[in-house]
Specification:
Elements (H helix, E strand, L loop, with lengths): L4 E8 L8 E6 L10 E9 L8 E4 L4 E4 L5 E8 L11 E9 L5 E4 L3
């Protein structure tokens, strides 16, 4: 019976004309929680959101790791356009974690 776990955030980069981007919020291998875990975050961007360059799914500024699940994924759906433009970036800053267990913490370093 473990009383502590650190959630990490990993990313998968995206590219226009290629794959979508993802931020994956994960418990350590072999860990889950029997209660859902809510993580609030903010997105910092040089890309245009709201369907211009990308949309985030889920659209909110929070993501929930369901009870008994090892992770949750925020997908950034990338839109390919014909514009010549600088490289655009989306960064994620985890703000807070909300869990009934105080031993669940967050490592927001990407």
């Amino acid at each position: 019976n473990d009383d502590a776990a650190v959630i990490t955030i990993t990313k998968e980069d995206a590219a226009e004309g290629g794959s979508n981007g993802q931020f994956i919020f994960s418990f350590p291998t072999g860990f889950t929680s029997d209660k859902e875990t809510l993580i609030n975050f903010s997105l910092g961007v040089t890309a245009n959101g709201a369907g211009v360059d990308y949309t985030a799914n889920p659209l909110a500024t929070a993501i929930t790791i369901p009870a008994n699940a090892p992770s949750a994924t925020l997908t950034l759906n990338i839109y390919d356009d014909d514009l010549v433009e600088f490289t655009e970036n989306v960064s994620l800053t985890a703000v807070t974690i909300n869990s009934v267990y105080s031993g669940i913490t967050l490592n927001p370093v990407l």
